[in-house]
Design goal:
Blueprint: H1 2-23, H2 31-54, E1 61-64, E2 67-68, E3 74-75, E4 78-81
């Protein structure tokens, strides 16, 4: 079910474009819309780069994933210095 939602979200922009082309045959895409989409794409790429840089771990450290402790409790993930 989750994959169906992902597929629909992935195909939604294409579906919107095809619907727009069907309802407005022979009309060119407005220049303002092209600029708005270009800016939105650049903002998305910039946000992804910023997020990737902000959540990275420091050099010389190692990520330890969550584990099940000896008493059955979950020990949360953490970052430790490299040994």
């Amino acid at each position: 079910m989750f994959y169906l939602v992902e597929l629909l979200l992935f195909l939604a922009p294409l579906g919107g474009f095809l619907l727009w082309r069907r309802l407005n045959p022979g009309q060119a895409v407005p220049t303002g819309l092209v600029w708005a989409l270009a800016i939105a794409i650049l903002c998305g790429i910039g946000g992804a780069v910023w997020y990737g840089l902000s959540v990275s771990i420091a050099p010389g450290t190692v990520y330890v994933p969550a584990q099940l402790g000896p008493d059955g409790q979950v020990v949360p993930h953490r970052v430790e210095p490299r040994r």
